[in-house]
Design brief:
The complex is a heterodimer. By secondary structure, chain A is mainly beta. Chain A is built from one helix and 14 strands; from the N terminus they run αββββββββββββββ. Classes of the chains: A mainly beta, B alpha/beta.
Chain lengths: ~210, ~290
């Protein structure tokens, strides 16, 4: 019976532990966004960007080869971030409402990719006929990671947080305006929106630099 | 009336607080003298349906498999836990006993772990489990149809009709099993779900509603759930499984709902494995 219990724990342990990353562990009660007088923290290393045409990924640091097409035909890539300690590049695709994950190969190119996290939108598929089309757009516009490998994506619905396996933890308020940059520094999350920089104190903490 | 309600709530809380969850494996989960044992082999797979993923899987081939008659197939998600002959489920041992007594047909077991995308340079690999298991789509069924089943069929004759195929799993592996059969009832007709995650991890909470508004499909389902299962940001597992059972009942599905007092574990599922397999595979018609 002792071994049965141990075997059961071994099987279920990983499954059950990964279930729970609620917003209550991420955002601090009573805190909100306020205007920050300084600049955004420096971008985290990685060197991957989506260009202004939202079509090409510029591998500016590693490949020195701007204009490398994104593999797997993303229709409208809008934001990206390096995840899981540098092994994975996450790219948000506005068209299919997913964040995609691509393995970063040893030479910095991108390996196989697949959908990773499903972005929430306001529109309800059951009421498509009477819902304005724009409510089905997540409009992912900026992305960052925290020190626990959670992903944060700024969308039209707010900032969506996902656990390391791509499951939605929850959505919290974004600062006013369209967010074009997100970053963590310590226990502060920074966001650039409409030429202003905002800051919010979090329970989650950024990656140690 | 109010005091009755309060008494009921207090009683429910008391039952929850002192849940036994003391399910034990029976003799059908133990090796029996005189029962021939099947063979378990370990394999690895990296395919294209889930790009970049690598995974382990195990095959159980019963001693009664003769190489001529196509065998029935049962696929398990999180396969390592189910194939372990000394673990909590011991499916190979259970099948040895049940096949020997002809209580189930000759079944080849395919026990598949979820995919992992290994890191190539620095950093950590990426687990693909939630995407593969929790997503309500036909992609996992396609993975089985296009990759795993053909690979196993190279060495073993397998039934190709849904009546000769089942699929099962625990937690996210449970909803994965149901969705695979739901999306592809031409591939699978029997579903075994242990503490299935019919919650909003990746939108799976819509399934009970879908069942109620979709023409009944030829799927037989064994649902096991515990009243002390998870209640977290994704939803309440007991309530979700109650919804599943109610929807299956409403649409007159062939189903069994085993609602115990356990938590998010495989204790009750392991203890009831022999009965679940007997029930799922009863009256299985011969291969077409």
């Amino acid at each position: 019976m002792k071994y049965l219990s141990i075997a059961t724990l071994l099987l279920i342990g990983g499954i059950a532990c990964a279930q729970d990353m609620p917003l209550s562990e991420i955002i601090k009660p009573g805190e909100g966004w306020r205007v920050h007088d300084g600049e955004m923290p420096k971008s985290e290393p990685g060197g991957y960007r989506v260009d202004a045409k939202n079509r090409l990924l510029i591998l500016d640091r590693v490949m020195n080869n701007p204009g490398e097409p994104i593999k797997h035909s993303l229709a409208e890539p809008t934001a990206c971030t390096v995840a899981l300690g540098g092994s994975t590049l996450l790219i948000a695709d506005a068209t299919d409402r997913h964040v995609w994950a691509f393995r970063i190969e040893k030479d910095g190119t991108l390996g196989p990719g697949d959908r990773y996290a499903r972005l929430k939108v306001l529109g309800d598929d059951r009421r498509k006929k009477i819902t304005p089309p724009e409510l089905y757009k997540a409009d992912p516009s900026a992305m960052t990671m925290d020190g626990s490998n959670r992903t944060y994506v700024a969308t039209s619905l707010g900032i969506q947080s996902f656990d390391p396996t791509g499951r939605l933890n929850g959505v919290f308020t974004a600062p006013p305006g369209r967010v074009t940059e997100l970053a963590f520094e310590g226990n502060r999350m920074y966001a650039r929106a409409e030429s202003k920089v905002y800051v919010r104190i979090m329970l989650a903490e950024g990656k140690k630099r | 009336m109010r005091s009755l309600l309060l008494t009921s709530i207090a009683f429910s809380l008391a039952v929850s607080a002192f849940a036994a969850d003391d399910y034990k494996l029976g003799p059908d989960s133990e090796k029996q003298v005189g029962v021939p044992q099947g063979i378990i082999t370990a394999h690895k797979w990296s395919g294209k349906v889930f790009p970049g993923t690598e995974r382990d899987y195990w095959l159980y081939v019963p001693a009664q498999y003769d190489g001529k008659t196509p065998a029935c197939v049962m696929v398990f998600q999180d396969g390592n836990g189910y194939q372990n002959p000394t673990g909590g489920f011991r499916v190979p041992v259970v099948l040895d006993n049940l096949i020997h007594r002809k209580e189930v047909p000759v079944i080849i077991g395919i026990f598949i772990n979820p995919g992992n995308v290994p890191a190539q340079g620095k950093g950590q690999g990426r687990s693909n489990r939630s995407f593969e298991y929790d997503t309500v789509s036909p992609q996992y069924a396609t993975f089985l149809e296009k990759e795993i089943l053909p690979a196993v069929s190279k060495d073993y004759k397998l039934r190709t009709d849904a009546a000769g195929r089942g699929i099962g799993g625990i937690s996210s592996g449970g909803i994965c099993a149901f969705v695979a059969a739901w999306e592809r009832p031409d591939l699978f007709s029997k579903v075994l779900s242990h503490v299935g995650s019919f919650t909003n991890i990746q939108g799976g909470d819509i399934i009970p509603g879908m069942i109620r508004k979709t023409e009944r499909k030829p799927i037989r389902t064994w649902l096991q759930e515990g009243s002390n299962d998870l209640d977290n940001l994704h939803g309440s597992w007991p309530l979700a499984n109650l919804q599943m059972a109610a929807s299956l009942k409403f649409m007159k599905y062939d189903y069994r709902f085993e609602f115990g007092d356990g938590g998010h574990n495989g204790k009750q599922g392991g203890a009831t494995m022999p009965e679940a397999l007997r029930w799922l595979w009863k009256d299985t018609p011969p291969a077409q």
